[in-house]
Amino acid sequence: MSDTIFGKIMRREIPADIVYEDDDLIAFKDISPQAPVHVLFVPKATIATLNELTPDHAELVGKLFLAAAKYAKGQGFADDGYRCVINCNRHGGQTVFQLHLHLLGGAPLRGFG
Q1: What gap in Å lies between CA 88 and CA 76, rounded to an integer?
Q2: Which one of the listed residues 38, 91, 100, 102 is annotated catalytic?
Q3: SS3 state of residue 97
Q4: How does pLDDT run across 41-65, given as a tens digit for each residue?
Q5: 8 Å CB contact between 24 and 60
Q6: What is the structure's pLDDT at 12?
Q7: Whole-angstrom distance between the N-terminal and C-terminal Cα of the chain?
Q8: pTM
């Protein structure tokens, strides 16, 4: 488990609004939301960035996306649409160096890309 803010959340050293947890990942509301719904899905395995992924991580990364989709469906905004984003390194907008997926939704999102 990393020594990032996410690691501290996983170890319950700092509080977070946790909305999902299983043996492999944890999800909590972003403290600086960029949409009405902004939840971070974080693997419990220490992986700093997308660049560190190996083929052995394929199932874990799949679980991130499946958990995000399940959350969107459960919260009732999946049919309207949502966005999943993984930033990589500083130029890609990553600020916490523990792999994580941003789930954004709950309202129309402005254009991207």
Answers
A1: 29
A2: 100
A3: coil
A4: 999 999 999 999 999 999 999 999 9
A5: yes
A6: 96
A7: 32
A8: 0.95
